[in-house]
Design goal:
This protein is mainly beta. 4% of the residues lie in helices and 44% in strands. The protein contains three helices and 37 strands. The strands form eight sheets. Strands 23, 26, 27, 29, 30, 31, 32 and 36 form an eight-stranded mixed sheet that branches. The longest helix is centred in the N-terminal third of the chain and has 14 residues. It is globular and about 75 Å long. The two termini are 23 Å apart.
Length: 546
């Protein structure tokens, strides 16, 4: 069946003008577990029930492109594309490997790519981000779906985060940013500094333009714009899970700035609605994309209508007329002049392509020998990896292949065939839910055969060891592994030898967030002994269902 499916896909591509387009971009994939477009001209929030943290969006013509924080995961800086701000596809990553490369060869939980800004300037797309340990970086390209240039360190320094560039009509360029108190020793202030026109280097010291300590603590996440005669800085304040969207404006980029709160939780269930992107459509409509921190599910993405009055924006619905909106849970779709197909970023994977799917990320920069697409067999092969010598548990393993939770509740099932190295014991391959605590069901090699095992590591980020349970010896090398996630992120694991009858594991696991990220789900293969060869697991598919 897979072979017929592949052949049909190739024929379609040939008919429609060649096979140069990445298949990932040509499919209108729709998730079985979450879609925001209701098919009747309306959408529901979140538009992405997945951890696309600190989103920013740029419009060029009738195309919209989004990126988000990646922290330590690789590849980093996801590139999503939409035609209507509701339906999105994941089409690329701007940063194939984290930099500096060697530093990110081991997991750097919570470090790496923080709060990027996405801009279009003189025919090129730019992404700026702050790495709290190294400084402010920039990458650019002429084609968001193509290859991006090597990163440029715009300014080195500790604790420089959340940068946003602005090129104005007067031929001057500026960069706004905030500070991470954990590295810089200061926080809750915003600065603006001059930037060269090429966008590759700051050219002067920063000037404080806002101090939020008194009324807007933890102000950060800057986005810098100019509209009419005003410079605007959009900045979240009040904390990741509890804050609000602050707007600053001035007729001088260095201030003084007036302030206004444009969006807050109000009487809704949407906590901390802030940090994101203002998008203006060709017809003049304004929209705002922001995140909501939803604990184990990460920072999920919402879309709000946006209006202007007296030079101030209001997002969502302003029920009491005070200029501060509250989030909508459903609304009419943006008027982009056309109706586009319902689509979502990919989650399920049949492993039929020539490359690992874009939805997958590693916990660190990957080694080329960890995983291979096997298009001849429509499988993904993971070779068992030696755990780092100092690793207490899988929190310290770089080689977990993971993706975001794609919905509030879902079931994930994978089929694998395990071929351990006959000269080793305790090689392992399985299905994992990963975060500060984690759990997995896996196949493990022993002297007398292959066993199903279940393990949990509570507070794995604090170095706690796994508590493992041996479940059953298998009669074959192939098994089906499953986890069901409910609306409270409670996880129930099970396994099957025939793909029909599943044996539920009598343990309930509560998924937990990672460091600045949501829980993730994925696959892994590990070993404890160093040899000149490894066992491997061939994964046939990885499927999400309701």
């Amino acid at each position: 069946m897979k072979r017929l499916k592949n052949l049909a896909a190739v024929l379609v591509l040939l008919v429609f003008g060649g096979i140069t387009m990445n298949a990932q971009n040509s499919e209108n994939f729709k998730s079985d577990v979450w879609a925001a477009d209701q098919g009747d001209g309306t959408y529901i929030n979140p538009i992405l029930h997945a951890d696309y943290s600190d989103p920013d969006v740029v419009r060029v013509g009738d195309d919209f492109y989004m990126t988000s924080s990646s922290f330590n995961s690789a590849p980093a800086l996801p590139i999503l594309h939409s035609k209507d701000l509701v339906n999105w596809q994941l089409i690329n990553h701007a940063l194939p490997r984290q930099v500096p490369d060697e530093h990110f060869s081991s997991p750097q939980h919570g470090n790496g790519v923080w709060a990027p800004a996405f801009r279009y300037h003189e025919g090129e797309y730019y992404i700026y981000w702050g790495d709290p340990d190294f400084g402010i970086y920039m990458v650019k390209t002429k084609d968001p779906a193509g290859e991006w240039e090597e990163p440029v360190l715009v300014e080195a320094g500790k604790g420089l985060i959340d940068p946003a560039p602005l090129w104005d009509e007067e031929g001057k360029a500026y960069l706004s940013h905030a500070f991470a108190g954990s590295r810089a020793g200061i926080k809750s202030i915003l600065v603006v500094k001059p930037l060269n026109w090429e966008g590759t280097k700051t050219t002067g010291a920063g000037k404080i333009v806002f101090d939020g300590h008194e009324d807007h603590p933890t102000v950060e996440g800057t986005k810098f714009y100019k509209k009419d005669d005003y410079y605007y800085i959009f900045a979240p304040a009040g904390g990741v899970s509890t804050g609000w969207q602050l707007i600053l404006r001035s007729k001088n980029p260095y201030g003084p700035y007036e302030e206004h709160v444009s969006l807050a939780q109000g009487n809704t269930d949407i906590n901390g609605p802030h940090q994101g992107a203002w998008i203006e459509l060709e017809n003049g409509e304004d929209w705002f994309i922001h995140f909501q921190d939803k604990e184990a599910y990460g920072r999920i993405v919402h879309l709000q209508p946006m209006t202007w009055k007296d030079g101030w924006p209001t997002m969502g619905v302003d029920k009491d007329g005070d200029g501060t909106g509250e989030p909508v849970m459903s609304f009419r779709k943006p008027n982009v002049g056309k109706i586009y197909p319902i689509q979502t970023p990919k989650d399920s994977d049949e492993f039929t392509g020539n490359d690992i799917g874009l939805q997958w990320q590693w916990q660190a920069n990957p080694n080329a020998t960890w995983a291979f697409a096997n298009p001849a067999k429509d499988q993904l092969r993971l070779y068992t990896q030696l755990l780092p010598e100092a690793a207490k548990n899988l929190w310290d393993s770089p080689g977990l292949l993971l993706q975001k939770f794609p919905a509030e509740e879902f079931t994930t099932t994978t089929k694998l065939t395990f071929n351990p190295n006959k000269n080793l014991e305790n090689e392992k391959a399985g299905l994992i839910v990963m975060g500060r605590s984690y759990a997995y069901v896996a196949l493990e090699s022993r002297k007398d055969g292959i066993y199903v095992v279940y393990a949990e590591a509570e507070k794995a980020d604090e170095g706690n060891l796994e508590q493992k349970e041996q479940l059953k010896k298998l009669s074959a090398k192939t098994a089906f592994l499953r986890v069901e996630v409910d609306k409270k992120a409670q996880c129930t694991f099970s396994y099957s030898e025939d793909g029909k009858k599943y044996i539920e594991i009598d343990e309930d696991f509560s998924a937990r967030e990672g460091k600045w990220v949501g829980a993730k789900i994925g696959i892994f293969a590990t070993k404890k002994q160093k040899t000149n060869d490894s066992g491997y697991a061939d994964f046939d598919w990885f499927r999400f269902s309701k």
